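Example (one chain per record):
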Amino acid sequence: MARIALERIKFGRNTRASRWTASACDVFRKYWPAQATPLLTRHNHINRRPQCLVRLWLCCVPLCGLPAAASAQQPSIDILHLWRTKSEQRAVSVLRNQAIADGAQWREVGVSGFSAVKEEFAKRKAINHPPNVVAWPLGRELNVMTSTGLTRRITDQGGFFESQLDPEIFKLVATDQGLSAIPLGLHIQNHIVLNQDLLTKYAFERPKTWAQFISYGPRLKDDGIYLISNSDEPWQIRNMFMSIFSSLASASEVRDLLSGDTSALTMKSKFTAGLAIFSNLKGFAEPGFHNRKWENTVRSLEGQRVLAVLLGDYIIPEFNESTNIVCDLAPGANYVLWGADTLIFPVQPNEPQRIAGQDLLVKLLSNRDTLIEFARWKGSIPAIKNVPLEGMHPCTAYMHDKWQTVPDKALADADSWNRRLAALGFVLNSIWNNEKIDIDAAADRIVKVLDAIR
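Predicted structure:
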């Protein structure tokens, strides 16, 4: 009823004011349904142009008093993240259980993908009620957000984080006045998981090149087994292409690709070669890839319907313990393409309980055991130095060794995710869904799009 009334506001069904009002009320309903339903239903009659702002006031003003429902001394944690699968929720529970045990009120919202995190954060910020903790990829923009006053600088437990965090990660969040975020763990993105039982059954070696890997496709297909399970979701299809690209380009070249410092035209031949591999993989991909969630690619490999999945190492804990898997860098990879999970802490003016919730979470994270346990269920390499391998999944331990020994690395940071990688993902989605891939035309399109957003 409330949604219908909002759409009928005669201020204009599709004006900026009416859309913003609807968005604000949607957020109100989502987080405080007990208060929203009677309020919005009671004022359902409001539909005259001058009263649009009254409608907005009814939606937003009650938010100011809602935190007072909790005890004045009770810390409040309101976290927005993208960790929604079974294994990821186990990781979140490491923090949730400790926070609740320490007397905190815990509220969380999990969405699908980083773009959804950004959208939800923007909605909450627009009504001046942002979450007080948000999962965000490691990158340069973390320091920008603190310098502009959007997020807090973390000064508590500074000695612990400086002494314990991996130096390569610490330097990316360190500022003169504290940390811009707290890193949780790092992920290797150009990563492949294979079903060892299928490798053994068909006497296949762990593939060292894409040509070798693709050569397994025809024999598997004869038995109704696919080479890969994947999705055409832009971020997933881009992840697969970047794994291919890591065998064709150097770490320096991929850093140029991510930053836009060099024209993509200089890499056109490598895009062409990568798209040829991309096209060949499509011929042996499991059907039903449209909008497939990544955890469903895991189910396909568990069921021996496919040989491999080409996604980051975060998928490792999602496999059931009975599945015999092996992991490696993508075939022929020349470097490690990596990213990292962090938590940021949006500024909460005049919200002592929510600030106390932030402080409590920072305290909980200043503990090696907590970071190690979170990473174990998240499938990440803990963001600390001298990581113990005991209790680590064999695949994660293997990738930790790659992190330590492969000399060249390239960081896919939040800024890249927001701009160039996001654009690349949408282009690749379109290319993959063409009945036939025109490789030269596709390479031209990638160059054109990437050079347009340098």
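Caption: Residues 1-21, 31-70 have pLDDT under 50 and may be disordered.
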